[in-house]
Design goal:
mainly alpha
Length: about 130
């Protein structure tokens, strides 16, 4: 998965039950890798649809889902020790979506303020 996730805020901390360091062997690393690929394959479509609904674009939704799953990759082995690994990934997804949603709203607010200033200038010019 290309690109790094664009999280404006820090990633959520793993719950205490998930913070223990799993014993990593070559076999467990291979199994974890396969488990991660399977998790992404089964969860990315739903994550993409959720993000698209929140962000108003299929493309933005797909990008957000991929970013959240990329952010999950380095903590996957620890996530597997959690009672609910999907809950950890959902926290990452909602963090990415919330950050991107805020960024989009900020862009719209800036454009709206610029349009109001321009309208004010045009009104002032016409009145002169």
């Amino acid at each position: 998965m290309p690109d790094s996730p664009s999280l404006n805020s820090r990633q959520p901390a793993l719950p205490p039950a998930c913070r223990r360091r799993p014993e990593v062997t070559r076999c467990s690393r291979d199994l974890a890798s396969v488990a991660y690929e399977a998790f992404c394959a089964t969860h990315r479509p739903v994550y993409s649809r959720y993000a698209a609904a929140r962000l108003g674009s299929d493309r933005l939704g797909e990008e957000a889902a991929r970013a959240a799953l990329r952010a999950l990759a380095p903590m996957w082995a620890s996530t597997l020790t959690c009672p609910a690994p999907a809950a950890v990934s959902w926290l990452l997804l909602t963090g990415v979506v919330n950050a991107r949603d805020r960024a989009e709203r900020d862009k719209l607010a800036i454009a709206y303020q610029a349009a109001l200033r321009l309208a004010g200038i045009l009104i002032w010019i016409r009145g002169s």
